[in-house]
Request: fold
Amino acid sequence: MEELIQTVAEFIVHSKRIVVFTGAGASTESGIADFRSRGGIWDKYNPEDFYFQKFLTNDKSREKYWLMSTEVYESLKKAKPNPVHHAIAEFERFGKLDCIITQNIDGLHHMAGNSPEKIIELHGTALSVSCLSCRRRYDRDEVQERIRKGVRVPRCDECSGLLKPDTISFGQAMPERETTLAYERSLGSDLFIVVGSSLVVQPAAYMPLRAKQGGAKLVIINRDPTPHDGYADVVINGPAGYVMAKILEKVREEMGSP
Ligand code: APR
Reply:
Protein backbone atom coordinates (compact mmCIF):
# COMPACT_ATOMS: atom_id res chain seq x y z
CA MET A 1 0.00 0.00 0.00
CA GLU A 2 2.87 2.42 0.76
CA GLU A 3 4.08 2.19 -2.85
CA LEU A 4 0.61 2.87 -4.21
CA ILE A 5 0.28 5.85 -1.87
CA GLN A 6 3.60 7.20 -3.16
CA THR A 7 2.41 6.76 -6.77
CA VAL A 8 -0.82 8.67 -6.10
CA ALA A 9 1.11 11.46 -4.37
CA GLU A 10 3.30 11.80 -7.46
CA PHE A 11 0.22 11.89 -9.68
CA ILE A 12 -1.07 14.78 -7.53
CA VAL A 13 2.20 16.70 -7.64
CA HIS A 14 2.24 16.47 -11.46
CA SER A 15 -1.46 17.27 -11.98
CA LYS A 16 -3.18 20.62 -12.55
CA ARG A 17 -6.92 19.83 -12.75
CA ILE A 18 -7.73 17.28 -10.05
CA VAL A 19 -11.32 16.18 -9.62
CA VAL A 20 -12.15 14.32 -6.40
CA PHE A 21 -15.32 12.19 -6.47
CA THR A 22 -16.69 11.20 -3.06
CA GLY A 23 -19.30 8.76 -1.86
CA ALA A 24 -20.68 7.71 1.51
CA GLY A 25 -17.45 5.84 2.32
CA ALA A 26 -15.72 9.22 2.62
CA SER A 27 -17.96 10.08 5.58
CA THR A 28 -18.20 6.80 7.53
CA GLU A 29 -15.18 7.84 9.63
CA SER A 30 -17.26 10.91 10.60
CA GLY A 31 -19.88 8.59 12.05
CA ILE A 32 -22.36 8.60 9.14
CA ALA A 33 -23.36 5.13 7.90
CA ASP A 34 -22.92 4.38 4.21
CA PHE A 35 -25.61 2.64 2.16
CA ARG A 36 -24.43 -0.75 0.90
CA SER A 37 -21.95 -1.98 3.50
CA ARG A 38 -23.03 -4.37 6.27
CA GLY A 39 -24.86 -2.23 8.82
CA GLY A 40 -25.41 0.42 6.13
CA ILE A 41 -28.67 2.30 5.56
CA TRP A 42 -29.94 -0.15 2.91
CA ASP A 43 -29.23 -3.00 5.37
CA LYS A 44 -31.80 -1.47 7.71
CA TYR A 45 -34.23 0.01 5.19
CA ASN A 46 -35.50 -1.36 1.87
CA PRO A 47 -34.43 1.09 -0.88
CA GLU A 48 -37.52 0.11 -2.89
CA ASP A 49 -39.63 1.97 -0.30
CA PHE A 50 -37.92 5.27 -1.06
CA TYR A 51 -38.60 5.82 -4.73
CA PHE A 52 -39.72 9.36 -5.52
CA GLN A 53 -42.96 8.15 -7.13
CA LYS A 54 -43.95 6.45 -3.87
CA PHE A 55 -43.20 9.65 -1.93
CA LEU A 56 -45.47 11.54 -4.33
CA THR A 57 -48.34 9.05 -4.22
CA ASN A 58 -48.96 7.86 -0.67
CA ASP A 59 -48.78 9.03 2.93
CA LYS A 60 -47.44 5.69 4.26
CA SER A 61 -44.36 6.03 2.03
CA ARG A 62 -43.93 9.68 3.02
CA GLU A 63 -44.03 8.78 6.73
CA LYS A 64 -41.48 6.01 6.17
CA TYR A 65 -39.30 8.42 4.19
CA TRP A 66 -39.30 11.03 6.97
CA LEU A 67 -38.50 8.37 9.60
CA MET A 68 -35.46 7.18 7.63
CA SER A 69 -34.42 10.70 6.69
CA THR A 70 -34.71 11.92 10.29
CA GLU A 71 -32.44 9.11 11.47
CA VAL A 72 -29.85 9.96 8.81
CA TYR A 73 -30.11 13.68 9.55
CA GLU A 74 -29.48 13.13 13.25
CA SER A 75 -26.17 11.40 12.45
CA LEU A 76 -25.27 14.20 9.99
CA LYS A 77 -25.90 16.84 12.63
CA LYS A 78 -23.26 15.36 14.94
CA ALA A 79 -20.69 14.71 12.21
CA LYS A 80 -17.40 16.56 11.72
CA PRO A 81 -15.03 16.42 8.73
CA ASN A 82 -12.46 13.60 8.89
CA PRO A 83 -8.94 13.29 7.33
CA VAL A 84 -10.53 12.62 3.90
CA HIS A 85 -12.30 15.99 3.92
CA HIS A 86 -9.25 17.78 5.35
CA ALA A 87 -6.93 16.33 2.69
CA ILE A 88 -9.25 17.49 -0.11
CA ALA A 89 -9.43 20.97 1.43
CA GLU A 90 -5.63 21.06 1.39
CA PHE A 91 -5.53 20.01 -2.28
CA GLU A 92 -7.53 23.18 -2.95
CA ARG A 93 -5.02 25.28 -0.96
CA PHE A 94 -2.28 23.79 -3.15
CA GLY A 95 -4.22 25.20 -6.12
CA LYS A 96 -4.55 21.71 -7.58
CA LEU A 97 -8.25 21.07 -7.10
CA ASP A 98 -10.55 21.66 -10.04
CA CYS A 99 -13.65 20.54 -8.13
CA ILE A 100 -15.27 17.97 -5.89
CA ILE A 101 -18.09 15.90 -7.32
CA THR A 102 -19.93 14.42 -4.34
CA GLN A 103 -22.82 12.05 -3.95
CA ASN A 104 -22.91 12.98 -0.27
CA ILE A 105 -25.69 15.10 1.21
CA ASP A 106 -23.88 15.87 4.52
CA GLY A 107 -22.21 19.22 3.78
CA LEU A 108 -18.86 18.02 5.23
CA HIS A 109 -16.80 19.33 2.31
CA HIS A 110 -18.18 22.81 3.00
CA MET A 111 -17.47 22.35 6.71
CA ALA A 112 -13.86 21.30 5.93
CA GLY A 113 -13.30 24.61 4.14
CA ASN A 114 -13.57 23.84 0.44
CA SER A 115 -14.99 26.74 -1.59
CA PRO A 116 -18.71 26.26 -2.25
CA GLU A 117 -18.22 26.97 -5.96
CA LYS A 118 -15.84 23.99 -6.16
CA ILE A 119 -18.35 21.54 -4.62
CA ILE A 120 -20.84 19.84 -6.98
CA GLU A 121 -23.55 18.12 -4.91
CA LEU A 122 -24.88 15.63 -7.43
CA HIS A 123 -27.45 14.14 -5.06
CA GLY A 124 -28.42 17.40 -3.41
CA THR A 125 -28.20 18.24 0.29
CA ALA A 126 -29.96 17.10 3.45
CA LEU A 127 -29.35 20.46 5.13
CA SER A 128 -32.40 22.17 3.60
CA VAL A 129 -35.98 21.28 2.72
CA SER A 130 -38.20 22.56 -0.08
CA CYS A 131 -41.87 22.49 -1.00
CA LEU A 132 -42.34 20.30 -4.06
CA SER A 133 -45.15 22.59 -5.29
CA CYS A 134 -44.15 26.25 -4.70
CA ARG A 135 -40.40 25.55 -4.13
CA ARG A 136 -40.40 27.58 -0.91
CA ARG A 137 -37.27 26.66 1.08
CA TYR A 138 -37.13 25.75 4.74
CA ASP A 139 -34.32 25.32 7.22
CA ARG A 140 -33.96 21.62 8.00
CA ASP A 141 -33.85 22.10 11.78
CA GLU A 142 -37.11 24.02 11.72
CA VAL A 143 -38.82 21.15 9.87
CA GLN A 144 -37.21 18.56 12.17
CA GLU A 145 -38.73 20.47 15.11
CA ARG A 146 -42.20 19.86 13.62
CA ILE A 147 -41.36 16.15 13.27
CA ARG A 148 -40.14 16.06 16.87
CA LYS A 149 -43.50 17.56 17.92
CA GLY A 150 -45.37 14.75 16.19
CA VAL A 151 -45.95 15.90 12.60
CA ARG A 152 -45.52 12.80 10.39
CA VAL A 153 -45.63 14.41 6.94
CA PRO A 154 -44.68 18.10 7.02
CA ARG A 155 -46.45 20.42 4.59
CA CYS A 156 -45.79 23.90 3.21
CA ASP A 157 -47.11 26.88 5.21
CA GLU A 158 -47.77 28.79 1.97
CA CYS A 159 -49.47 26.24 -0.30
CA SER A 160 -49.84 23.05 1.79
CA GLY A 161 -47.62 21.29 -0.73
CA LEU A 162 -45.40 18.36 0.29
CA LEU A 163 -42.08 19.24 1.95
CA LYS A 164 -39.03 17.10 1.10
CA PRO A 165 -35.32 17.40 1.95
CA ASP A 166 -33.34 18.79 -1.04
CA THR A 167 -31.81 15.37 -1.73
CA ILE A 168 -32.28 13.36 -4.95
CA SER A 169 -34.29 10.18 -4.42
CA PHE A 170 -34.25 7.15 -6.68
CA GLY A 171 -36.43 7.93 -9.68
CA GLN A 172 -36.20 11.69 -9.09
CA ALA A 173 -34.79 13.90 -11.88
CA MET A 174 -31.08 14.66 -11.44
CA PRO A 175 -30.20 18.35 -10.91
CA GLU A 176 -29.47 19.63 -14.41
CA ARG A 177 -26.76 22.23 -13.62
CA GLU A 178 -24.81 19.94 -11.34
CA THR A 179 -25.03 16.93 -13.67
CA THR A 180 -23.90 18.89 -16.72
CA LEU A 181 -21.06 20.48 -14.75
CA ALA A 182 -19.94 17.11 -13.38
CA TYR A 183 -19.78 15.64 -16.89
CA GLU A 184 -17.78 18.61 -18.18
CA ARG A 185 -15.33 18.74 -15.26
CA SER A 186 -14.80 14.98 -15.30
CA LEU A 187 -13.93 15.10 -19.01
CA GLY A 188 -11.58 18.05 -18.45
CA SER A 189 -9.71 16.60 -15.50
CA ASP A 190 -6.13 15.25 -15.65
CA LEU A 191 -6.45 13.25 -12.42
CA PHE A 192 -9.71 11.79 -11.11
CA ILE A 193 -9.69 10.41 -7.56
CA VAL A 194 -12.64 8.34 -6.30
CA VAL A 195 -12.90 8.10 -2.50
CA GLY A 196 -15.41 5.84 -0.74
CA SER A 197 -17.99 4.88 -3.35
CA SER A 198 -19.29 1.49 -4.53
CA LEU A 199 -19.72 3.09 -8.00
CA VAL A 200 -23.02 1.31 -8.70
CA VAL A 201 -25.44 4.25 -8.88
CA GLN A 202 -25.92 6.02 -12.23
CA PRO A 203 -25.34 8.57 -13.62
CA ALA A 204 -22.80 9.39 -10.86
CA ALA A 205 -20.81 6.18 -11.41
CA TYR A 206 -20.27 7.14 -15.05
CA MET A 207 -18.09 10.15 -14.13
CA PRO A 208 -14.84 8.17 -13.57
CA LEU A 209 -15.21 6.62 -17.02
CA ARG A 210 -15.85 10.04 -18.50
CA ALA A 211 -12.58 11.20 -16.95
CA LYS A 212 -10.72 8.25 -18.50
CA GLN A 213 -12.24 9.10 -21.89
CA GLY A 214 -10.76 12.59 -21.47
CA GLY A 215 -7.30 11.15 -20.83
CA ALA A 216 -7.20 11.54 -17.06
CA LYS A 217 -5.45 9.18 -14.70
CA LEU A 218 -7.98 7.35 -12.49
CA VAL A 219 -7.39 6.47 -8.84
CA ILE A 220 -9.92 4.52 -6.75
CA ILE A 221 -9.62 4.51 -2.94
CA ASN A 222 -12.28 2.26 -1.47
CA ARG A 223 -12.40 -0.42 1.21
CA ASP A 224 -14.14 -2.89 -1.14
CA PRO A 225 -13.66 -3.64 -4.86
CA THR A 226 -15.78 -1.64 -7.34
CA PRO A 227 -17.02 -2.48 -10.87
CA HIS A 228 -14.62 0.19 -12.27
CA ASP A 229 -11.39 -1.09 -10.71
CA GLY A 230 -10.31 -2.50 -14.08
CA TYR A 231 -10.23 1.01 -15.59
CA ALA A 232 -8.16 2.50 -12.79
CA ASP A 233 -4.45 3.32 -12.91
CA VAL A 234 -4.25 2.80 -9.14
CA VAL A 235 -6.67 1.01 -6.78
CA ILE A 236 -6.13 1.22 -3.02
CA ASN A 237 -8.40 -0.96 -0.87
CA GLY A 238 -8.10 0.46 2.64
CA PRO A 239 -9.53 2.94 5.15
CA ALA A 240 -9.98 6.25 3.31
CA GLY A 241 -9.00 8.48 6.24
CA TYR A 242 -5.64 6.76 6.74
CA VAL A 243 -4.92 6.54 2.99
CA MET A 244 -5.79 10.19 2.25
CA ALA A 245 -3.77 11.42 5.25
CA LYS A 246 -0.76 9.42 4.07
CA ILE A 247 -1.12 10.73 0.51
CA LEU A 248 -1.27 14.29 1.81
CA GLU A 249 1.86 13.69 3.91
CA LYS A 250 3.76 12.58 0.78
CA VAL A 251 2.46 15.54 -1.24
CA ARG A 252 3.63 17.95 1.48
CA GLU A 253 7.07 16.28 1.47
CA GLU A 254 7.33 17.01 -2.26
CA MET A 255 5.63 20.40 -2.38
CA GLY A 256 6.10 21.83 1.11
CA SER A 257 3.01 23.34 2.81
CA PRO A 258 0.58 25.46 0.73
N1 APR B 1 -12.78 3.81 3.87
C1 APR B 1 -12.82 3.37 2.56
N2 APR B 1 -13.96 2.90 1.97
C2 APR B 1 -15.07 2.86 2.73
C3 APR B 1 -15.09 3.29 4.09
C4 APR B 1 -13.87 3.78 4.64
N3 APR B 1 -13.80 4.22 5.90
N4 APR B 1 -16.35 3.12 4.57
C5 APR B 1 -17.08 2.60 3.55
N5 APR B 1 -16.31 2.44 2.46
C6 APR B 1 -16.71 1.99 1.12
C7 APR B 1 -17.55 0.72 1.10
O1 APR B 1 -16.70 -0.37 0.90
C8 APR B 1 -18.49 0.94 -0.09
O2 APR B 1 -17.99 0.29 -1.25
O3 APR B 1 -17.52 3.01 0.59
C9 APR B 1 -18.46 2.46 -0.33
C10 APR B 1 -19.79 3.16 -0.09
O4 APR B 1 -20.68 2.71 -1.06
P1 APR B 1 -22.24 3.01 -0.93
O5 APR B 1 -22.69 2.70 0.42
O6 APR B 1 -22.89 2.32 -2.08
O7 APR B 1 -22.31 4.59 -1.10
P2 APR B 1 -22.27 5.47 -2.43
O8 APR B 1 -21.39 4.88 -3.46
O9 APR B 1 -22.02 6.84 -2.02
O10 APR B 1 -23.81 5.34 -2.92
C11 APR B 1 -24.23 6.06 -4.01
O11 APR B 1 -26.51 5.49 -3.61
O12 APR B 1 -28.08 5.05 -2.05
C12 APR B 1 -27.69 5.98 -2.98
O13 APR B 1 -28.07 8.31 -3.04
C13 APR B 1 -27.35 7.33 -2.36
O14 APR B 1 -25.52 8.81 -2.92
C14 APR B 1 -25.86 7.48 -2.64
C15 APR B 1 -25.64 6.57 -3.83
Residues 23-25, 28-29, 34-37, 40, 103, 123, 196-198, 201, 222-224, 239-240 surround adenosine-5-diphosphoribose (CB under 6 Å). Residues 8 and 199 are 20 Å apart (CA to CA). The mean pLDDT is 97.
